[in-house]
TrEMBL record:
Catalytic activity: guanosine(37) in tRNA + S-adenosyl-L-methionine = N(1)-methylguanosine(37) in tRNA + S-adenosyl-L-homocysteine + H(+)
Entry protein name: tRNA (guanine-N(1)-)-methyltransferase
Organism of provenance: Streptomyces tardus
One protein family per Pfam: tRNA_m1G_MT
Boundaries of every tRNA methyltransferase TRMD/TRM10-type domain copy: 1-232
Enzyme class: transferase
Keywords annotated in UniProt: Cytoplasm, Methyltransferase, S-adenosyl-L-methionine, Transferase, tRNA processing
Enzyme nomenclature, EC number: 2.1.1.228
Role played: Specifically methylates guanosine-37 in various tRNAs.
Family: Belongs to the RNA methyltransferase TrmD family.
Length: 246
């Protein structure tokens, strides 16, 4: 998969050299290219922002540098990228959206600072390309760079061969499957006794069916406590007889 990021803070994207994403790059599974937006400015001060028409606080990112940058980046590859525009006014980023993006060969991210990018840029590229305005949650950040890190990590770990064990995202909170839309419950490892605290007996029983039942009950408890909205959304027929008694 190819990923391009156009930003005025290239150093903000340095975590993409580390850990899961860094290793995927080193193995050639990800081709990540970071671009400095100011390289597509032509004035002495490399201006990327200006005051908003209609007044109001803050600054707006000028359309010209974005247009030149996107034309060059998009023109440098084969095929159709998805253009991902991080913005608090976008659609929510979900595991399903991460999965969808992970199935595309090329993503171009346009993280903005200030009050956002001149609207005409989004309209212009949406006429010819697949443009997605995406928010990572209901809070406001100073710019889209941290959301790009979040989205790239969520997408990269879904690529074939990037995680060591293909099963390891099967039971993830929000993955599909038997534990669909439940939060994951608690996990334990050695030693069996730590500061007088043991581990639940059932996990030592070797009884796979009872372990699965226990995991599902803990997932239901946690989901009820932290995300009652997810319990309400579970479709009729999702809860079995034992679930309803829990
Ligand atoms: Cl994508 N950008 C900014 N600036 N703030 C956010 C966001 C994105 N998602 C949630 N808050």
């Amino acid at each position: 998969m190819r990923l391009d990021v156009v930003t005025i803070f290239p150093e903000y994207l340095e975590p993409l050299n580390v850990s899961l994403v860094g290793k995927a790059r080193a193995r050639g599974q990800l081709d990540v290219r970071i671009h400095h937006l100011r390289e597509w400015t032509h004035d002495r001060h490399h201006t990327v922002d200006d005051t908003p028409y209609g007044g109001g606080p803050g600054m707006v990112m000028k359309p010209d540098p974005w247009g030149e940058a996107l034309d060059e980046v998009i023109g440098s590859g084969e095929g159709e990228p998805v253009i991902v525009v991080p913005t608090p006014s976008g659609r929510p980023f979900t595991q399903q959206l991460a999965q969808e993006l992970s199935e595309r060969p090329w993503l171009v991210f346009t993280p903005a600072r200030y009050e956002g990018i001149d609207r005409r840029v989004i309209e212009e590229y949406a006429e010819r390309h697949d443009v997605r305005e995406i928010s990572i949650g209901d809070y406001v950040l100073a710019g889209g760079e941290a959301p790009v890190l979040v989205m790239v990590e969520a997408v990269a770990r879904l690529l074939p061969g990037v995680l060591g064990n293909a099963d390891s995202h099967r039971d993830d909170s929000f993955a599909s499957g038997a534990m669909a839309s439940l939060l994951e419950g608690p996990v334990y490892t050695k030693p069996p006794l730590w500061r007088d605290r043991g581990i639940p007996e059932v996990l030592l029983s070797g009884h796979h069916g009872r372990v699965e039942r226990w995991r599902r009950d803990r997932a239901l408890e946690r989901t009820s406590a932290h995300r009652p909205d997810l319990i309400r959304e579970l479709g009729a027929g999702t809860l079995d007889r034992h679930d309803r008694a829990t």
